[in-house]
Amino acid sequence: MNIQSRPRLPRTRLSRRTFLLGLAATPLALSAGCATRQPDTVPVAVSDTTGRRPLPIPPLAESVVDASGVRHFALTAAAGTTEIIAGKSTPTWGYSGSVLGPTIRARRGETVAFTIDNALPETTTVHWHGVHVPARFDGGPHQSIAPGGRWEPSWTVNQPAATLWYHPHPHGSTEKHAYRGLAGMFLVDDDETDASTLPRVYGVDDIPLVVQDRRFTVDGSLDESDPTDVGLLGDTIVTNGIADAYLSVRTELVRLRILNGSGGRMYNLGFGGGEEFTMIGSDGGLLAEPVRATRIALSPGERTEIVVAVRPGTPMMLRAFPFDDRAGVARDEAAQYGLTDSFDVLELRPAADLERSAALPAVLAALPRPDASDVVARRRFDLQWFMINGERMDMNRIDFTPTVDTTEVWTVRNADNWPHNFHVHDTQFRILDIDGTPPPPVLAGWKDTVYVAPGSEVRLVLRFTEYTDPTYPYMFHCHLMLHEDQGMMGQFLVLAPGQEPAPVTMDMDMDMDTGMGASRPGAGGHGGH
Ligand code: C2O
Ligand code: CU
Ligand code: CU
Fold it and tell me: Ligand 1: which residue has its CA nearest to atom 3?
């Protein structure tokens, strides 16, 4: 795609999508007469008369704690097939399963170690999104794992309880790898949160929910053709790997940890009957106190934690609604970015007899006020086309070098008419203001990804702590995956005071199509270990 001339897809695409929407509806009718296939990992039951199947809950990743207290996990990225739509078998990719991946769960203070094998036919990486992690274990484009290769990152978890996630980050192919199914949840626990009365029985009243959109070809394969300006937009909403799911609820309160795992689609989530819910957490942890809401918007990569009060025997539908303000996009452009679409996301089916839930705590977390009083560096990031500050990603270019344990203020401006968001690796930031106004309560907590509407400006306060590395950078980028693949990304090294960046020893050009090409010393990792 040429960045000089803005790619504009012909209007006829809309009628094609309308056609596909019609197709997507038919498998429900067909599924009644089809034998239901059991894919190897997603426990899918036979559809009921509504055509809905129970929401698959990703299994908790198995782990072994060794004599020195290190918790070991193993993941294998591999291809498989999944019954995303009832009665259809779709080739997919997954971690230790046919699609998505097991939920990693670890405690603050614990050292985790991973053995990650790549059984895919392509080079990939595993990035820990939202995780405070040493740069060489970040899993960005510098930590590629070739087919047959292995990667073994390890670090000590040092951040508050949060809903984080992991996904591939091979430069130039992130969108496709994630679209094919590679993504998983990463939950951090801590003592404070365990001592609270929040629902926290995994898979019972504490539910991970990966929300994605997919499109299918007539043979049931994932359709990777015709990306829009925001990437591959699907006409089928998939939750935890399947379309048309319902969740049986047995408790008065249910906590949903929702991830927008889509490459380019934004979701304006709420309930069909306008029911209120309580937001308790954002990307990097719990809010200071519960916030009542009827809608919550998530751009790609963002998470929210909400608690929903259900009524016995009364179903509720979690829906994606059109964006009232079109997410700040011009009226005649909103439809092509999917901002006017609406979808059912997940039906909640409460039992007639609900178990009692404890009341929510009035205070959730000790959240310090965002503090920019000791700022040592201010930086500006203009998002436009597939560039940040007029430059595309270059794995050999370090854009800047923050000093560890100092405070920075970043001003991120969307100088475009496209929707963009902004994600920073390694740290959780706080939003100082959006167009000069302090953030609303739902955006006032820890964040690692923030939506930046066309023409608007968001100021962030952030600190990089603990880890320094003169060789391996962290990334910042738009998390619309097509945009990041096209180069809307940059890199920074976190350095100790007075430390110099290591010289770049190999200087091979990045190949944008394959994501291959080594850059910083040892960065290629071809063949892994
Ligand atoms: Cu979720 Cu750099 O990524
Ligand atoms: Cu990330
Ligand atoms: Cu973007």
Answer: 129
Residue predicted with more confidence, 49 or 133: 133
Q: What is the pLDDT of residue 203?
A: 98
Residue 19 backbone phi and psi in degrees, to 5: -60, -45
Side-chain-side CA neighbours of 216 within 13 Å: the count stands at 26
Q: State how far the Cα of 423 lies from the Cα of 401, in Å rounded to an integer.
A: 17
pLDDT band at 44 (very low <50, low <70, confident <90, very high): low
> Which residue has a Cα nearest atom 1 of ligand 1?
129
Nearest atom (ligand 1) to Cα of 475: 2
CA–centroid distance for 341 within its chain: 20
Least confident segment among 27-36, 240-249, 288-297, 360-369 = 27-36
In tens, the pLDDT along 186-240 reads 999 999 999 999 999 999 999 999 999 999 999 999 999 999 999 999 999 999 9
What's at 116, amino acid-wise? I
Residue keyed to tokens 């994630």: 178
Return the percent helix, strand and coil in the chain, to nearest 5: 10, 40, 55
Tokens of 302: 């963002």
Neighbours of 11 (CB within 10 A): 9
Where is 2: in which H helix or E strand?
Answer: none
Q: What is the overall mean pLDDT for the chain?
A: 89
pLDDT tops 80 at residue 109: yes
| Nearest atom (ligand 1) to Cα of 484 | 2
Would you say 299 and 260 are in contact if contact means Cβ atoms under 8 Å apart? yes
Give 126 Cα–ligand 2 centroid separation in angstroms: 10
pLDDT of 75 > 70? The answer is: yes
Q: How far is the CA of 130 from the centre of ligand 1 (A)?
A: 8
**CA 81 → CA 78, 90, 180, 225, 382, distances in Å?**
10, 5, 10, 20, 41
With tokens 């503090």, the residue in question is 371
Which of 21-30, 81-90, 211-220, 225-234 has the weakest average pLDDT? 21-30
Atom of ligand 1 lying closest to residue 425 CA: 2
Distance (Å) from CA 389 to ligand 3 centroid: 13
- Rounded to whole angstroms, how far apart are CA atoms 170 and 145? 9
> Among residues of the chain, what percentage have pLDDT more than 90?
85
Q: Which atom of ligand 1 is nearest to the CA of 140?
A: 2
pLDDT at 14 over 80: no
Cα-to-centroid distance, 390 and ligand 3 (Å): 13
Determine contact, residues 478/420, Cβ cutoff 8 Å: yes
Task: Please give the distance, rounded to the nearest whole angstrom, from the Cα atom of residue 66 to the centre of ligand 3.
Answer: 42
Q: Name the closest ligand to CA 386.
A: 3
The rounded Å distance from CA 243 to ligand 1 centre is: 25
User: Residues enclosing ligand 1, CB less than 6 A?
Assistant: 127, 129, 167, 169, 301, 423, 425, 475, 477, 479
Q: Quick one: which of 519, 528, 527, 529 has its CA closest to 141?
A: 519
Q: Is the pLDDT of residue 33 over 80?
A: no
First-residue to last-residue Cα distance in the chain: 34
